[in-house]
Design brief:
alpha+beta
Length: 422
């Protein structure tokens, strides 16, 4: 049976109705890695059914943990694992598995991983991860593309991150919870997913303070127990859906969402003329589809505008009359969606890491390629407002971060369907 790796979109239908936002991929992944630290069984709830999660489950099993995965619940028993080397073929499928180094080193005093390469959005170095682990007392050896780390026991340290890297903050936080003494991480990342990981670790008996601020203080403990934990909703999925209805026009209520995690995004949508009402865990988005250009969107670490919503927001700006400027400051190659949007009639000029988006009255359907997860979602959104049919190829990228994206949109009235490989 040919893979259903293309998504066809008929444009022109306003979105209406209610949708529940699933759990956050970028919280679930480090939290599943952190289960390796526990001397008891961990049950993690509201875990989305995604390709990346399946890879993480395969990695935990390959290390010798017993894992029951019945979405949205994952039960992990990592009390006894048999190896501390992450299989290369799994590492290649998901570069963020680099943050398994922290928990393996902290609990088993050894970790061996293959160096993750770059990806379509940038070179993605891991120097901050390695520098931080060395400061915590790990000896790091790199041969033939493998990174081999060991320690007798990690110890507390004062670490300052040159840039507030999400992955490095998570990796070092997980390493430090079982270290001897206190660790201070300065210029730490402040994303909601960092706070969720810290809350999970504290639920297991860790002592992490300051999560969500730029300085983290972690007092090492002897050991962690098991526990049950429900992860936060996915703010990037919620943002993508809010942008979709803003473009198509319509009236959509998002349930299981944290509007306070989307401050920068909601500000820009309101600047664009969208009506948004929020409650503690609910959000109503109304639009007549007649948008205004937004002077500037500049991506930045949280609480700035999320780089993961840059591509979907650019799809919106491509049909907002006037000139909008988009500056991508986090990743150096995250404009791969621009040429595909231009195939659909958008008018976008790129100069290094800035895109100048001249809104056009309409887009037209075309066959386009998804180069990565968020670029793929942006092309589906463009298809929702384009005349005729858009076919997004390489749709497997989208499945890495959106659980049944086509079904979610069809539930709101969109004319979207899966097609098999051509
Ligand atoms: C996380 O990636 C997310 N992934 C990304 O989401 C997200 O785009 C990114 O954070 C930024 O918000 C997961 O959580 C699994 P970083 P991560 O380390 O941790 C530089 C998606 O679409 N850097 O915060 O890899 C790096 O080059 C994905 O869901 C170093 O220089 O991102 C980049 O410019 C894509 N040295 C910047 O920091 C290092 O050692 C931010 O990267 C590490 C990072």
């Amino acid at each position: 049976m040919k893979a259903l790796d293309r998504i066809a979109v008929e444009g022109g239908t306003p979105l209406e109705g209610t949708v529940r936002v699933h759990g956050a991929k970028n919280a679930a992944l480090p939290i599943l890695a952190a289960t390796l630290l526990a001397e008891g069984v961990c049950v993690v709830e509201d875990v989305p059914d995604l390709q990346d999660i399946r890879v993480m489950v395969d990695i935990l099993r390959a290390l010798g943990a017993s894992v029951d995965y019945s979405p949205p619940v994952v039960r992990v028993d990592a009390r006894r694992i048999s190896r501390t080397e992450v299989p290369e073929e799994l590492m290649r499928q998901m570069r963020s598995s680099i943050f398994l180094m922290g928990p393996l080193l902290a609990r088993y005093c050894h970790a061996r991983v293959s160096r993750p390469g770059g990806c379509t959005i940038g070179s993605r170095p891991i120097d901050l991860h390695l520098k931080g682990l060395a400061a915590l007392g790990a000896s790091i050896d790199e041969v033939h593309g493998y990174i081999d780390c060991q320690t007798r026991r990690l110890h507390g340290a004062a670490i300052y991150l040159d840039t507030p890297s999400v992955g490095a903050t998570e990796n070092l936080m997980m390493a430090a919870v079982l270290a001897e003494g206190t660790t201070v991480i300065g210029n730490a990342a402040r994303e909601p997913e960092i706070v969720d990981l810290a809350n999970f670790l504290n639920r297991l008996g860790a002592r992490v303070e300051g999560a969500g601020e730029d300085t983290l203080v972690i007092s090492g403990v002897q050991g962690l127990i098991g526990g049950r934990y429900a992860i936060i909703p996915d703010r990037i999925v919620a943002g993508t859906l809010a942008i979709a209805v803003s473009m198509t026009g319509g009236d959509v209520t998002l349930e299981n969402v944290r509007p306070n995690h989307l401050g920068a995004v909601l500000t820009k949508l309101r600047e664009g003329g969208v009506e948004i009402e929020t409650g503690r865990d609910i959000m109503r988005v109304r639009s007549d589809g007649k948008l205004r250009a937004v002077e500037q969107v500049r991506t930045a670490p949280y609480p700035g505008f999320p780089t993961d919503l840059q591509a979907p927001f650019m799809a919106l700006l491509s049909v907002a009359p006037g000139m909008s400027i988009v500056a991508e400051t986090v990743f150096e190659e995250r404009f791969k969606h621009v040429s595909e949007l231009c195939r659909m009639g958008a008018n976008i000029r790129v100069d290094l890491r800035t895109a100048f988006v001249q809104g056009v009255p309409r887009l037209t359907g075309a066959v386009v390629q998804a180069s990565d997860l968020r670029a793929g979602a942006a092309l589906v959104l463009a298809g929702l407002v384009a005349e005729g049919t858009t076919v997004v190829e390489q749709a497997h990228h989208i499945d890495r971060g959106y659980q049944q994206f086509d079904e979610m949109l069809r539930g709101l009235g969109a004319r979207v369907r899966r097609l098999s490989q051509s």
